């Protein structure tokens, strides 16, 4: 299992509306590599889990820390919210 890999949004932005071109290319390369390896040797790799799925959640404010009643978006509460988040519209 390849897990907890990720990369920030373009320009290290925490804004959910910022570009993700570099991250998209990074994930594309990883997913293709994992798929190729898994296709060749079914026992060597079981899956992937990137960091971190935010879904419909959004940070209260870019670079803010999590506070009670904020959305859960994958980042630990003591870290800036939204930096590595993959949102439903990315």
From TrEMBL:
Keywords: Glycosidase, Hydrolase. Residues 1-21 are annotated as: Disordered. Pfam families: GH5_mannosidase. InterPro entries: GH, Glyco_hydro_5. Residues 1-90 form the Glycoside hydrolase family domain. The keyword Hydrolase applies. Residues 11-21 have a biased composition (Basic and acidic residues). This is Glycoside hydrolase family 5 domain-containing protein. It comes from Chryseosolibacter indicus. The lineage of its organism: Bacteria, Pseudomonadati, Bacteroidota, Cytophagia, Cytophagales.
